[in-house]
Amino acid sequence: MNWNQLLSGKRFGMEEYHERKHERTDFQRDYDRLIFSSPFRRLQNKTQVFPLPGSIFVHNRLTHSLEVSCVGRSLGNNVAKGLMQKYPDGSVNFPEIGSIVSAACLAHDMGNPPFGHSGERAISAYFAEGNGKKLQEKILNEGGRYEDFLHFEGNANAMRLLTHQFIGRRKGGFALTYSTLASIIKYPYSSVYAGKKGKFGFFQSEEEDYLRIADELGICRNPEDANKFVRYPLVYLVEAADDICYQIMDIEDSHKLKILSYDETTRILLNFYDKDTDKEDLKTISRTFKIVTDKNECIAFLRAGIINKLINACADIFCQNYEAIMNGTFQGSLIHHLTGTNKQAYETCTELAYSRIYHTNIVTQIQIAGFKILATILKEYIDAVLKPETYYARNILSVMPEQYKVHQDDSIYTKIQTVTDYVSGMTDSYALNLYRKIKGIELPEIR
Predict the structure, then answer these.
(1) Mean pLDDT of the chain
(2) Which of 83, 233, 324, 348 could form a disulfide with 330 if both were Cys (CB 3.0 to 4.6 A apart)?
């Protein structure tokens, strides 16, 4: 792969359209286009890990995505500096890498359904063991790919959201640049090759679109499996930004929610600093803690320093493994190649998160609720799109937004996918309110 081909300002769905020149670059305009979009704004009402806040503010999908974007920009800029030293002739527009990565980071969670990662599992479970299982044979008989629903994947759904021409919308979806789109596809293969983890990068409906992107950017086939592609290089930076943020920010949120004590939280975070090699940093921390007495602010100061350490470490790992990344032989994520104190401390955070944070009662309760809510909505709307002639179906479909309308001659795969489009785009509160109305628990009010 070569950078002159990899960094393309061509817009998906608008390839033949030549717009007038702007002061902002194409990649900066991708960022702005995402920021001002309705699907991005809806992230403010989607669960990250903890239920949406009452008196204590914790991260939602929106704040998480904004922070990931900031970290991604720094990662991209650091790597760009390294590449400009490696290729000093100025023939490649490396300074734009930070803009591409920051835009892709904004978009990386836009395909995720309500109720956090449990929302993905709820949709998958509906088709694996719920009422949706009976649809498998019908979908397969029409040539549809059942694995797209069986392993519903937010990453693949983001690709669809950004590229699909929904009813009433323009060709190419968001019409983002090819490079920004390629940067969000962590798993560059279809659901057929998802394996036990159930991870994949695009649905059957977007497979041709991905092939077009791969061809335009010169993304290679995987040398070990021709059914898959290698990752677009900047995917590693988007993934690292996400890994850095969610792990460290979940620790900070857990302190605010008193799941972790102040002493325990500081001890965990100070593990990132080596007593021998980070002496100056530790002195700065000590001086700051003598001045700042607010415990939340102390944790925030530690968190900021750790994020900076991990940004520098991951950028170095990218540059050190540059050849392997470019020829598609690099294995794993950048964060899994950490060494020394960073590696040990990050692994401790991961173990703590799974043992103490992700299985607390409050998190489990939102997961239970999400499963019930999404399964109910899926059943009602899938039944309705498959048998739209009934009185109830006509009524329930009438409240579905215009962009999700189905046609009688659409395949079963398309009809079901349209329902999952609708459900995955919901916010937590919208899904809850719709569930209550479907179940007759709550009646609409005139406002």
Answers:
(1) 90
(2) 324
